[in-house]
Predict the structure.
Amino acid sequence: MNIRLTLFLCTSLFLLNGCIHSPIDAKKTVLKRPDSNFSKNAEIQLTDKDIFGNETTLAVSEEDIQAAINGDKFRVPLSSSVILVQSGSHAPEMTMQQEMGKYYQVSTFSGIPDRQKPLTCNTVKTEEGDAVLSENMNYMQALRYIAAKGQQKAVIVYWDTLQTGRYDTTTKTTLWSDYHGEALSDSASLRYLIRFALVDVASGEWATWTPINYEYNVLQPQPGKIPLTETQIGQLKQKTYVAVVKDLVNRYQ
C-alpha cells in the first residue's frame, strides 16, 4: 500500500467514523468519543474513564476476579520516582507536594485533560507489517508514556473536595454539601475528602483508595478580628495531607 493511499484511507475513516481505537488490552472495544465544549476557565475534573479507560465496562468473569486476587500486590516502594497529579488543577497544591516529597521523588503534571484537542490518526505497524490506525483515548496512557520517558515508577492521581456540614436537629445527622466560599455559621463543620488512584507505569495495573476524612468545627472570630475561615481551611488541608499521605505510604510501600 503506497503512502498516498494510506493517507486517503486515514482521512476517509476520520471523517466517517473517527479514528479506530487500538487499545492495549485485547478485551477493550471501540468507543466513540463524546463531543465536549468546555469553557477554558471551567475547572475540568479527570473522570474515571480518563484514568481507567473502558475497563469499568468490560465483561468480567469469575476467573478474572480470582486472577486479580491472586496477582501481585500493588506496590510503590519508598523513594520511588512518581508523577503526582491533582484532578482539575494545573499543578498539585504545594502542601501535598511537600508531604509526598518526604517519601517519594515527586514530579508533577496537569490534572486538566485537553478535551479541545482534535482527533488525529496515527499509523502504526503490527508485528506482521500491516499498517493500522490508532488513537490514544485514555489520558492515563499518555501519563504513563510521559512517566516511562522520565523513568518514573508510578502515577498518583488524587481528587479533593472541601465540604461544609450543617447539623439537622430533625434527623439528628449532619448534612454535607460542597463548599463554595459562602459565610459559615458557628454551628457549621468542614471536611476535606480525598480519593487516590495509583497506576503502575510499566504494567498499567492500578489501585484506588479513599482514606478516612477529618471533620473540623468552624470557629467564629471575636469582634474586630479577621475571619478564621481561610486559616481553618488551610489547617484542615494540612492536617488531612499529613495523615492521608502517611497512610498511603504505609499501605503501598
